[in-house]
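User: I'm putting together notes for a lab meeting next week and I want to include a structural view of one of the chains we've been expressing. I don't have a solved structure, so I'd like a prediction I can at least talk through. The sequence is below, exactly as it appears in our construct file.
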Amino acid sequence: MQLQKATRKKSKLRLNISGPSGSGKTYSALLMAKGLIGNWDKIGVIDTENGSASLYEHLGSFQTIDLQAPFTPERYIEAIDICINAGIECIIMDSSSHEWSGAGGCIEINEHLAQSKFKGNTWSAWSQTTPRHDAFVQKVLQCPVHVITCTRSKMETVMTDDKKVKKLGMKDIQREGWEYELTVSLNLDRDTHTAQASKDRTELFEGKDPFVITEKTGQLIKQWCEQGVDPDAEKKAAITAATKALKSCKDYSSLGAAYTALTPELKLATLATKDELKAKFTTNAGQ
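Assistant: Thanks for the context. Below is the predicted structure for the 287-residue chain, given as structure tokens.
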């Protein structure tokens, strides 16, 4: 644990586009991804909407995974890994709603657990369902590539005391607080297909007039993502410095002290160097 000066690092996008059916989530996500990456071949869509993404194949040669039920968190995680291993640089998840409320999603999983293991107590069943959902969320947040999620939304209403229906606004079909896990959350209007930010850590869209998502939107976000220190370069520099420090040691005792002072991550990265030097010092001591 170490206190250090705050340093902005380059980052990967975590953005959610929510809206009702027909608002343009898939089309908007594809255009944004193209502006962000610049190469259709490096865009992968995890499609849970019965192949709807493929209706836009005329835009470019993006890749798709046709994800069918059951929509468990683990199947989403598997699809993400397939995209990463295939060299995809931007994953579009269309949509994330099925992981929560689709066939075999978390709500259905929890109901099944409640009936089979918790005597119908759905509250207790969440003790096993929540960790599975949290693993999915963490997979998205820790993903080494850009991620754009599309989330269905619906009008939330309540019955007032005078028996009238009151509209409270649009609500995402995902677990409460899903949009706040991500860097940017944009809400699409069904009639105008324009977007407004409900959360924006980039400060690119907050407080701005409704806008249509285009490739230029992705290009703007790309500029933001590339600001700051490259975390990979920073990591490589730290490993190089640690390796140099170990190699400067004159005996086994100083090697042990230098290695002990390293962080767990650097210890793992320089383990081979440490073992090589240890063998060298042991051999020299025996001569």
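A couple of points you could mention at the meeting. The chain has a mean pLDDT of 89. The first strand starts at residue 14 and ends at 19.

User: Perfect, that's what I needed.
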